[in-house]
# Entry
Amino acid sequence: MGMSVGGSGGLKADINMTPMIDVLLVLIIIFMVITPLTPKGLEALVPQPPPPNQKQNTAADQRTVVIVVNKDKSLMINQEPTTEEKLGPRLEEIFKTRAERVVFVKGDPDLDFYYVARAIDIAKGAGIDKVGLMTAKVEAGQ
# Structure
């Protein structure tokens, strides 16, 4: 509450804004410090195409595991047909002797993401550390 200086001599019912602005500035600083500067998202692995003049390494190709989800919702592991029930045990069998547990999932463009997410979930349940997504643009080498 403030008092007026001058002739009327009565009380003046005004809100003093200075303390309120100070509190707001302190709150803004606190929220700026608390809020992380870099948002953390999901890490996505994308296989890199080989350089155009280099021939492909067949040993590295055999070590790469790709789960393909076809348009008819059938599953394949490196061109080997499998079912959803057999996918988890088959991945465990493939990766039981490997130190690096990386698998790539490729889904048909017309397929709902739900079926690709189920394949990712089964791979995570089988103990796969990193799951990457393959797209048509990556395969074309662009």
